[in-house]
Design a protein that fits this description.
about 280 residues; 10 strands; 2 domains; Arc Repressor Mutant, subunit A; Jelly Rolls; four-stranded antiparallel beta sheet; alpha+beta
Length: about 280
């Protein structure tokens, strides 16, 4: 069908300005770019897929997502030739646009954000489209207020996404500890490096989310497995120390004593049945 509509805005000069808005409905193989204007093209992607590309990058744009074409961007996007592509957009200018985008983490390097509240954001685009070319001052101010509201909704999306990412980091860290506790090199630094996080930030995040430091979490898993080995195997204390990630069995003995109030050998003797 390739339906296309656009409206211009009789604007108000400010640090947050609108220029035009539009929509494409059920397009196939739509292509746009590079963006040679000084405005920000702010998109809601309703359905379909497109590939955003530059000389060295490829980004998939998919339905129920938010995307920004930055001023003078060399990106080109092309939608799928067989899957209908429906988008709605707003052209905006002003210092606040750049500041808001930076605050929600949408940048030239990362211009796409998947949405959870897609229907709420689509309704906002539709409402702005309805009011966009109305001549009254109240309608124009209303459109500006809707742009502020859009960034408010996107900020809420970012907060929710950040919470999910933090939860993912914690789950991945816990899985790494459970899988690699026997490796003496396992540490806060190696886990943070695997997650591409600053070690100090990772330690603070882990403590805030779980109530304990990652260092103590590693020790917890090592001690728990050591206790099981003392209880259910006849391995020597030195062998158990090595199997739970201690290169120094004296350090293991001291750590176990601090945790259980007795040495590993004394713990084994205290069991009610012989090994």
């Amino acid at each position: 069908m390739n339906k296309y509509e656009e409206k211009n805005f009789e604007g108000l000069d400010s640090d947050l300005m609108l220029s035009y808005c539009g929509k494409r409905i059920e397009n196939l193989g739509h292509c746009y770019g590079p963006h040679t204007r000084d405005d920000y093209l702010i998109y809601y992607i309703k359905k379909g897929e497109a590939v955003l590309s530059s000389d060295d990058r490829r980004i998939l744009l998919s339905g129920e997502g938010f995307f920004v074409n930055f001023p003078y961007s060399d990106y080109v996007y092309r939608s799928n030739e067989t899957r209908p592509w429906s988008i709605k957009w707003i052209s905006a200018k002003g210092e606040l646009v750049e500041r808001y985008l930076a605050l929600i983490g949408v940048t030239r390097e990362n211009p796409y954000m998947p949405l959870k509240n897609a229907h709420g954001i689509e309704r906002l685009f539709d409402e702005m489209y309805d009011f966009f070319d109305r001549p009254s001052l109240s309608s124009r101010i209303h459109c500006i207020s809707l742009l502020h509201k859009l960034f408010s909704l996107l900020a809420a999306e970012k907060t929710e996404n950040d919470c999910e990412k933090k939860g993912q980091y914690i789950r991945l860290a816990q899985a790494m500890i459970e899988e690699h506790y026997s490796d003496p090199s396992l540490s806060v630094f190696t886990i943070a490096s695997a997650l591409y996080l600053n070690p100090n930030y990772f330690s603070i995040l882990y403590k805030r989310e779980t109530g304990k430091t990652p260092k103590s979490a590693i020790l917890d898993v090592r001690m728990r497995n050591a206790e099981k080995m003392l209880r259910f195997t006849d391995l020597s204390v030195k062998e158990i120390a090595a199997k739970v990630g201690f290169s120094d069995d004296l350090h293991f003995r001291r750590s176990f004593d601090a945790r259980y109030g007795m040495t590993p050998s004394a713990y084994r003797r205290s069991l009610s049945f012989p090994i």
